[in-house]
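Complex record, four chains
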Amino acid sequence: MKIDPKSSADLSAQIAKAIRDAIISGDLIVDERLPSESELADQFQVSRPTVREALKRLAAQNLIRTQRGASGGAFVRRLSYDEAASQHITTSTLLLSMNAVDFETACEARFALERACAPLSAKRRTPDHLATMRAEIHRQAQPGLSDERFCESDVAFHRALVDGAANPVLSYQLAGAVEAMQPLMNMITFTQRNRDVIIGLHTRIANALDAQDSAAADTALAELTAYTLTLGEEAMAARAAAKAQSER
Amino acid sequence: MKIDPKSSADLSAQIAKAIRDAIISGDLIVDERLPSESELADQFQVSRPTVREALKRLAAQNLIRTQRGASGGAFVRRLSYDEAASQHITTSTLLLSMNAVDFETACEARFALERACAPLSAKRRTPDHLATMRAEIHRQAQPGLSDERFCESDVAFHRALVDGAANPVLSYQLAGAVEAMQPLMNMITFTQRNRDVIIGLHTRIANALDAQDSAAADTALAELTAYTLTLGEEAMAARAAAKAQSER
DNA sequence: CAAACATTAAATGTCAGACAAATGAAAATT
DNA sequence: AATTTTCATTTGTCTGACATTTAATGTTTG
């Protein structure tokens, strides 16, 4: 584990990279303790604050955890699915908002990926998944539900669908696509009619998964994709019109 | 933007969270300059090293960039697709290796997602994508190619397939699934016969996309999935046998 | 002897102040 | 007018110190 003193990059960035590489390559294994900050400072020939900045970078990526006190220190952390998913969601959300990704692109990506899960979910969904989906459908039908809550429930429904595939890697990957859509979905105003259509399609999807009918699930998902796209287009058009109005 | 002095969490973590939230909520926009480190230290009532640790956390997530000198400082950074994808790949790879994800699970996830891209790719692939795929197929057929290079080319082929869908969000999401599989694929020893089968399937996929025949592409991908799975199982069985041997 | 308590050492968390290095802008010079 | 010099600002790094947490050790006591 060495750094290049001639490099123009920050020392803390170099040190972080050196340790990160050691973790990725397997030189440092899960729950192994890193040398203390003073020892690392000696090893890399830098001061302790510089080492600390490097460790904070790694902590931000959930690669290490630190513990105070005697026999404390920095330990290589086992990355959990939940943590990885939450990181992934944050990054995806920021990526979409900062690059002004249009509704169509995000929507297409999300539903394409979800349709990939449907056949597996039809095969493996448990009663638990079905119950979650039906509970969310019920919630979506409640009168007086705000648009935001409706979207939240929509996300929960689709996550249950994805989780039904019983593949944690798939769930992790999909979490980013599904959750990152939420800010975009929140721009839509859902009329009662809109909701009825969506709830109807959700019900068809749940029934199809219940009957382990993969083809029916796919058809319903395709229809939901098309419908969501038209809703999104309408919302974007309405926004554009409102903007033109305010600028006049 | 405030922090809770009573919280047990590190001050630098709290400050990083406060700034991160401001970025996510849109209070801080792309290319906006943050206050200088001394000013932030005053605002949050902490010392400059503490502020610096917080900023390094954000830098590790590519949320800010820093510039030295007069009129320098920390600026909110636009997250690019490439950066987000590379972060996603690192996280996915670590997640798989640290949690000892089995070949079957990862493989299933990867191909399920890829098959979701195939219809879109059949519709939109450009001559460029087809050329890349054919070039990689040609590379895969070269004699004396190491297993590692073969896998590398395989990844390049599949990324071209995904990119053919012309949906950057999809490409970003898939990058994690495809690249993270590489370490697992590297455990496989590809015989000439194995390679021939894979190259044949790759050719069928390229031809199908060329002909914009989505169904044919899906069939070939399904066969490739099944074949890769058997190869993986054999490799894992061989590994287990070798281990049993060495323990005897 | 065992359990409760006090002590201690090691480690991270935080702070204060200083200097180095980079950099853009203003001032001085040619 | 163009070039060079100076200068103020800001991040990068270092030194040294103190606070806080925590486990291990030692001590006392029932």
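Note: Chain A is about 70% helix and 5% strand.
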